[in-house]
Amino acid sequence: MISEARLKYFAIPAPLKQRFVYPVAFAAIPAATLTLYFNHESKFMATRLYVGNLNFTTTEDTLRAAFSGGGRTVRAVSVPTDRETGRPRGFAFIEMGSEADAKAAIAAMNGKDLDGRTLKVNEAQERTPGGGGGRY
Fold first, then answer.
1. Closest CA to 115 of 50, 75, 65
2. Which residue in 6, 21, 42, 78 has the most C-beta neighbors within 10 A?
3. Which of 71, 66, 124, 70 is nearest to 95 (CA)?
4. Is the model's pTM score more than 0.70?
């Protein structure tokens, strides 16, 4: 375990500062490795899309077909389900092949109709800490 005295905040470039402010130990992780990690994460988020207002009957295959139109590459589709009921929650995450594919998909699919619902498509945001563990 690393002592509190050895923990310092890594100097993060301004555009990434809102997403990543984690204490790290310089002795344990080289700065070059951290730079590669942060650059990789920011590129990953640029290719991941949030798709909202989905019909509960919409499947991953339907989303893959809709978003791969126009020659765009879809790497992965994820439709989260409710833990208790197993029913889809009405949104999905789609990882596109490139940043250009993601921008083209947003332009093409945002506001379009799919299975009787108007889609809301935008770049997925980093999950914010908090919530959970509600008290009565």
1. 65
2. 42
3. 124
4. no
